[in-house]
């Protein structure tokens, strides 16, 4: 068994064991302060930016970064397609398929729509 | 005779090593200006300059794929993200314009020397850098700390081998026949040769990590829009 095989078997087992221990043995007493995100003691973000902005701007940049990394990982196939043959093509298509699933999820949730803040007055 | 040529080998894959020095000097200058610039936007711009300098350094070393990846990913996505966050935050510039960091320069110098001197005495260094300025500084520090110099530069009798070694020039043979280029792989094609055949499980791990990032970010920030909630209210009042 190579170290790579050991890695691939051992890491999911370890992660599942740690999650299961937390699920079984940890007490569960939530209240609102504990559930909210930890922001170094600050309670609200309202005083720290010039105006409220929606979070879909961040989603735009993050999705651009992720698909940029996907393109970057496809570059080596482009220059070595002859050497890798049909096997490499199938591997690259499987990689694309996994990320296309993520793309379909994002399209379905309509994640890239920014809510318009225009106020429509009816005259 | 076959068209073989001798090319002086250096770390820069045939380019002049002066370019490496210029790029590393530019990188250090940009790094210092990232920390000491007052306006945070100027700070991020110097961070972009730092990324471009390091990308040029990597390309000169011959690992061109990683260098271009630095420009594509770091400058193209991450530094832009930094810029947008800096624009959207309300940073009070009046507090930043106070000049109260002159006291910490001696402390910075002491910490810098205390970190770099043990580090450089442990890591193996290029012995062909005998005549460089940093080597003289390091030799002087050693003579103060340990009371003995590592290598006495002035005694040339005993050190002929080291001096000859410092003048060593490596050369590599290349050819301009076209069929020799089949055996000369660039860095990106050799990555492609390996990543899609021998190491494809790591490749799929990378794809699953990217998928996880996508799904997690979208589901954490998903807000049902007003249209879908209106439809839900309509459906509830119908029954």
Automatic annotation (TrEMBL), chain A:
Coiled coil: none
Localization of this protein: Mitochondrion membrane
The family this protein is said to belong to: Belongs to the complex I subunit 3 family.
InterPro entries: NADH_UbQ/plastoQ_OxRdtase_su3 (IPR000440), NDAH_ubi_oxred_su3_sf (IPR038430)
Catalytic activity: a ubiquinone + NADH + 5 H(+)(in) = a ubiquinol + NAD(+) + 4 H(+)(out)
This protein's name: NADH-ubiquinone oxidoreductase chain 3
Residues annotated as transmembrane: 6-25, 53-75, 81-105
Entry membrane topology: Multi-pass membrane protein
Record bears the keyword tRNA-binding: no
Lineage: Eukaryota, Viridiplantae, Streptophyta, Embryophyta, Tracheophyta
Any one Gene Ontology cellular component term annotated for this protein: NADH dehydrogenase complex
Gene Ontology MF terms in the entry: NADH dehydrogenase (ubiquinone) activity
Automatic annotation (TrEMBL), chain B:
InterPro entries per the UniProt record, alphabetical: NADH_UbQ/plastoQ_OxRdtase_su6, Nuo/plastoQ_OxRdtase_6_NuoJ
Transmembrane segments: 15-37, 44-65, 71-91, 103-123, 199-222
Keywords carried by this UniProt record: Membrane, Transmembrane, Transmembrane helix
Keyword set includes Cell inner membrane: no
GO molecular function: NADH dehydrogenase (ubiquinone) activity
Identification of the protein by name: NADH-ubiquinone oxidoreductase chain 6
Gene3D superfamilies documented for this protein: NADH-ubiquinone/plastoquinone oxidoreductase chain 6, subunit NuoJ
Lineage summary: Eukaryota, Viridiplantae, Streptophyta, Embryophyta, Tracheophyta
Keyword field contains Transmembrane: yes
Family: Belongs to the complex I subunit 6 family.
């Amino acid at each position: 068994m190579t170290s790579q095989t050991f890695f691939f078997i051992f890491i999911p087992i370890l992660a599942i064991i740690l999650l299961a221990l937390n699920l079984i043995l940890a007490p569960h007493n939530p209240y609102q302060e504990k559930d909210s995100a930890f922001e170094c003691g600050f309670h609200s973000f309202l005083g720290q930016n010039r105006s409220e902005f929606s979070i879909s701007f961040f989603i735009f940049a993050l999705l651009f970064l992720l698909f940029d990394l996907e393109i970057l990982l496809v570059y080596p196939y482009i220059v070595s397609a002859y050497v890798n043959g049909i096997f490499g093509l199938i591997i690259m298509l499987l990689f694309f398929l996994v990320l296309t699933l993520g793309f379909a999820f994002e399209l379905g949730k309509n994640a890239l729509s920014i809510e318009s803040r225009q106020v429509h007055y009816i005259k | 005779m076959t068209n073989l040529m001798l090319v002086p080998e250096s770390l820069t894959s045939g380019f002049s090593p002066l370019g490496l020095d210029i790029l590393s000097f530019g990188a250090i200058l940009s790094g210092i200006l990232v920390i000491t610039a007052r306006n945070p936007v100027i700070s991020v711009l110097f961070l972009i300059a730092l990324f471009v300098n390091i990308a040029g350094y990597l390309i000169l070393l011959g690992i061109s794929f990683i260098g271009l990846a630095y420009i594509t990913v770091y400058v193209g996505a991450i530094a832009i993200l930094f810029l947008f966050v800096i624009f959207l935050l309300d940073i009070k510039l009046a507090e930043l314009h106070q000049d109260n960091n002159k006291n910490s320069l001696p402390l910075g110098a002491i910490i810098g020397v205390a970190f770099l001197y043990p580090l450089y005495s442990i890591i193996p260094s290029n012995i062909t850098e005998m005549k460089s300025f940093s080597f003289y500084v390091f030799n002087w520090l050693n003579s103060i700390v340990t009371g003995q110099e590592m290598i006495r530069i002035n005694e040339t009798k005993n050190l002929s081998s080291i001096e000859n070694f410092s003048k060593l020039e490596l050369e590599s043979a290349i050819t301009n026949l076209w069929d020799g280029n089949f055996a000369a792989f660039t860095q990106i094609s050799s990555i492609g040769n390996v990543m899609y055949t021998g190491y494809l499980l790591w490749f799929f791990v990378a794809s699953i990590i990217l998928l996880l990032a996508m799904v997690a970010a979208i589901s954490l920030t998903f807000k049902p829009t007003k249209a879908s909630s209106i439809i839900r209210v309509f459906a509830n009042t119908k029954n």
